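Thread amino acids onto this structure.
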């Protein structure tokens, strides 16, 4: 009975967030702040975590939150500058003339261009950019947001330069005593184990992502077509499969050979380079063009109150000039991550390393120049001169980027420290395992060897609750590792399933839903959108779970 009580208490931080966000519908900044206090109270009073450990975990979490905000600021700053210069408007026009078929437009804009944006920006930006862009192509606002949410899931798993993995999974596992003990028994370094996780994620995501474009257009024709037919979406399966493979194969190979930072970026870029010319030549495109019913026949709630205009400028800019900043981002990121070049070492020379924060076993390590935010800011400066942007426009872009961070900063300042206290609760005087491992023990007793079927659902739940695949991975990676250890199955597999679920959960993450809807003037449509993306969500979670069970049965 006492063990059951500990299981329930270890679940309390997660339940608190769920109740406040979903049931009580409180703002995320309130929900995460209260969840942090609940986690701290349980850690201090029940787990008997020393106050110094709790404070050190909070500091560790604040440093990680600051790193995330720095990356987001750089990504948004560059995006705002490109809007001001007219580059985004030029890119939009370049996508307009590829095909008149709305199914094909959705696949190219969301699954390929959106994946590229996810690779360089992330954090909900692709859905917020692609939704108004689709409206300018003649999509109903509600349809634009729906397909943006569904299609973006194929790239969220690695996100902006690998952040959901490098700052999510890595922060959840690295230096955890139970992980270090496990790796010591195997005679394996953490770097090798982490690479196995990345490779497993890449393979699983490539399998699932290949069919996402097809499910996306099937939902589009079912809910927004004149005939309300699934068949009209499924009829485009050769092109949808071709587009899915054009993204998933290079994305998977990138994860295997280059690591977690580039799969979304390279997958989207290579996919565009393959699919756009093929589409212009009519390769696998359907003979019958599909379009929405006439505007006067659109149902109530389809249209937003704002007609999205990406930018009024950009008439003179060439397509190549518009794309150069994003090309530079990809180039600089690759150059800075290749170990045989000197750039990585130079960027890592500036670092802050505190081995023992407040006299505890918790350390804080940050290399600010090596963070992708530095690359974004560098390219933003280059773009300022390259696109001949006025100083007033630069100031406006900077101020808007800073304003965007304000609400996110409050949420992250509570959410990430909560996660660190949750994970570091193993440093205690009660003799109990940490909260994630205690929770894992209880779950493993309930489901046993069938856990791979449930692991993706946990990841999706984490993203739904927190609004971030990164935070979901940070919160649950150690928990997933613990369950795998308890039932004696391959830990890297289960953690990969966590990542897949975290990415799938972005389709129902309320903060992303709200942000994307706001860009096209939709309000109070979150419930309807969640219902309409359930089919692709269930597909992703079920496929991942079944794949996990198959792999477990083999190895």
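Threaded sequence (555 positions):
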């Amino acid at each position: 009975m006492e063990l059951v009580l500990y299981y329930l208490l270890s679940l309390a931080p997660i339940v608190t967030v769920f109740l406040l966000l979903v049931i009580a519908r409180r703002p995320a900044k309130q929900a995460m702040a209260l969840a942090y206090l609940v986690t701290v109270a349980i850690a201090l009073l029940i787990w008997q975590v020393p106050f110094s450990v709790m404070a050190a975990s909070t500091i560790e979490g604040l440093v990680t939150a600051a790193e995330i905000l720095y990356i987001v600021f750089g990504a948004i700053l560059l995006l705002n500058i490109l809007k001001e210069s007219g580059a985004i408007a030029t890119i939009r026009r370049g996508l307009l003339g590829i095909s008149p078929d709305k199914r094909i437009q959705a696949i190219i804009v969301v699954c390929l261009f959106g994946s590229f944006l996810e690779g360089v920006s992330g954090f909900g930006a692709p859905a917020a950019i692609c939704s108004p862009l689709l409206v300018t192509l003649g999509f109903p606002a509600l349809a634009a947001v729906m397909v943006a949410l569904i299609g973006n899931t194929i790239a969220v798993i690695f996100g902006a330069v690998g952040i959901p993995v490098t700052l999510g999974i890595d922060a959840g596992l690295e230096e955890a005593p139970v992980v270090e003990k496990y790796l010591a028994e195997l005679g394996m370094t953490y770097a090798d184990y982490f690479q196995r996780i990345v490779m497993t994620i890449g393979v699983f995501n490539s399998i699932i992502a290949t069919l996402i474009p097809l499910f996306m257009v099937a939902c589009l024709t079912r809910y927004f077509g004149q005939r309300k037919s699934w068949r009209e979406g499924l009829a485009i399966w050769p092109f949808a499969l071709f587009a899915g493979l054009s993204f998933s194969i290079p994305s998977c190979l990138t994860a295997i050979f280059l690591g977690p930072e580039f799969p979304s970026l390279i997958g989207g870029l290579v996919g565009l380079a393959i699919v756009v010319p093929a589409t212009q030549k009519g390769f696998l495109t359907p003979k019958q063009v599909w379009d929405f019913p006439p505007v006067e026949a659109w149902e109530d709630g389809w249209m937003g109150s704002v007609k999205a205009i990406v930018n009024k400028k950009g008439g003179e800019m060439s397509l190549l000039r518009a794309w150069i900043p994003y090309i530079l981002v990809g180039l600089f990121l690759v150059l800075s991550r290749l170990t045989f070049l000197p750039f990585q070492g130079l960027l890592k020379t500036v670092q802050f390393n505190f081995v023992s924060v407040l006299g505890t076993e918790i350390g804080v390590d940050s290399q600010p120049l090596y963070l992708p935010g530095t690359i974004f800011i560098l390219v933003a400066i280059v773009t300022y001169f390259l696109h001949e942007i006025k100083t007033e426009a630069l100031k406006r872009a900077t101020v808007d980027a800073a304003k965007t961070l304000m609400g996110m900063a409050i949420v992250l300042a509570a959410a990430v420290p909560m996660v660190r206290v949750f994970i570091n609760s193993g440093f205690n005087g009660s003799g109990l395992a940490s909260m994630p491992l205690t929770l894992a023990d209880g779950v493993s007793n309930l489901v046993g060897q069938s856990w791979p079927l449930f692991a993706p659902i946990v990841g999706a739940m984490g993203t739904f609750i927190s609004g971030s695949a990164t935070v979901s991975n940070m919160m649950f990676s150690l928990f997933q590792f613990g369950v795998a250890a308890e039932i004696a199955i391959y830990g890297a597999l289960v953690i990969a399933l966590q990542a897949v679920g975290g990415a799938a959960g972005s389709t129902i993450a309320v903060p992303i839903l709200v942000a994307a809807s706001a860009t096209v003037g939709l309000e109070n449509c979150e419930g309807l959108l969640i219902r309409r993306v359930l089919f692709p969500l269930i597909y992703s979670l079920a496929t991942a779970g079944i794949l996990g069970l198959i792999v477990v049965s083999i190895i």
